[in-house]
Amino acid sequence: MVGQQQARKAAGVILKLIKERKIAGRAVLLSGHPGTGKTAIAMGLAQSLGSDVPFTMLSASEIFSLEMSKTEALTQAFRRSIGVRIKEETEIIEGEVVDITIERPAQGAGTKKGSIVLKTTEMEARYDLGAKMIEALGQEKVQAGDVITIDKASGRITKLGRSFATAHDYDALGPQTRFVQCPDAEIQKRKEVVHSVSLHEIDVINSRAQGFLALFAGDTGEIKPEVREQIDMKVSEWRADGKAEVVPGVLFIDEVHMLDLECFSFLNRALETDLAPILILATNRGITTIRGTNHKSPHGLPIDLLDRLLIVPTRPYSSKQLGAILKTRCQEEDVELTDEAQKALTAIGKNTSLRYAMHLITVASLVAQRDGKRTEVRGSDITKVFSLFADVKRSVDTMNQHEELYMFHDSAASGKAQKGAASSASSSDDTNSSVAPMSTD
């Protein structure tokens, strides 16, 4: 990621607080201009947390398009972001495979029988195999020299890897081959197994007649509060008995200014509950009206909710940072730019917007291939696509110039749009750079 050092440092502090579980039930607001990397910071935070910590991402506008109440949609999002690690002891058979013998019927039809010999560093044992176990061994492609575990309750076979003793048996092995030590102690042992689920998954399983299969049915609908209360009580019992551990995850709501006053009130109350995830909000609005009211507030959020938030601002990019971002984008899209084209594109991004400049990359590449039969984009190609496709400011200028030709033209609204586009283009760390005049073809 390019730029936003201060915001990234703040995100690093938040990441440390999350891992140390010192920020549960609190909220963070990422605020800044459009195209300054707010969503990228949130996604980077999610990847840094790893797969063990639940991360739920949604846009605020999704709340109003679901076939359920707004508070129910937010409740489900909250509970998706809270993980539960359920611990249980199970009896397993673990060892290195010494030999597998399968007896097939002479006529080709009938039940298969067989046996498997497993060993540890201290003992060796033979076990008889039924048809289902033989089929499971075939699916896992188990062979002599593999280290496996067998769950006695379910019959599930897990291949842990190849034994180090067989490392020299083959001249070539795939890169995915994993070598492990031969197990020690007894073959049959009790082992603690951890199952990671979210509170919402437990809600769905217990609120539907089909149980676990309800997770694959798509829309889960609304869940009764009584079901959630019983589940919360059960999880509390498991925590008290040491059978479960609650892992507060992260709920990321983008474009949070799209929520209304009812949703904001729910968020205020939800953050005060015992089971609350880390809430990360993002918005690109300044002083604006709170949805559902006639009152204006910073970022379109009520003051009482803003008071709960740790606000992380993102800053406009400098010309050097814009050039680095556009260069990286060109590499991702496999587009080659000359130095002249790179400078022209950076200047355009500085005076219009970064997203508009990104849109021109692929278009300029297509123009270079069509007109010049070239794979490299030149400055003239950037000039041409700049004249073909208007940015927000030039589009507003065109509407104001020909307002009598448009239907239902509101001059006051267009003036505000023009002012907003101008202020967005002019707000930057480096105010000295400008776009050179570009002639149209």
Report what the structure shows.
The chain is an alpha/beta fold. Helix 10 (339-351) runs antiparallel to helix 11 (354-371) and helix 11 (354-371) packs across helix 12 (379-388). The protein has helices spanning 5-19, 38-49, 70-80, 131-140, 199-207, 225-241, 261-270, 303-306, 319-332, 339-351, 354-371, 379-388, 392-401, 411-426; strands at 27-31, 55-59, 82-103, 113-119, 124-129, 146-151, 157-163, 179-180, 188-198, 244-248, 250-254, 278-283, 287-289, 296-298, 309-313, 336-337, 376-377. Strands 3, 4, 5, 6, 7, 8, 9 and 10 form an eight-stranded mixed beta sheet that branches. 38% of the residues lie in helices and 23% in strands. Residues 211-217 and 426-441 have low confidence and may be disordered. The protein contains 14 helices and 17 strands.
